[in-house]
Amino acid sequence: MVTTERMTMFPFSTRAERLIGQEMFKVMDRAQALEREGRTIYHLELGNPRIAPPREIIDATMEAIRAGQLGYAPMAGIRELRDAVGDRIARRTGRRIDGGSVVISPANLLISQFLDLTCNSGDRVVLFTPAFPSYWAAAAHSGLTVTAIPLSQENGFHLDEARIEAAVAACPKAIIVNSANNPTGAVYTQSMLRLLVRRCEDAGIWLLSDETYADLSFGRTFFSLASCESPQLVVMSSFSKVLSIPGYRVGYALAHPAVAEKFALSTSTLISCLPIFSQLGCVAGLSVFDQYAERVRAQYRRVTSLCAEWINRSSAVRCATPESGFYLFIDIRATGLDDVAFCKRLLEERHTAVTPGRSFGVGCDSHVRIATCGSEDDVMEGTRRIVELAGELGGYRVKAA
Question: Per the database record, which ranges form the Aminotransferase class I/classII large domain (predicted)?
Answer without folding.
Answer: 44-385
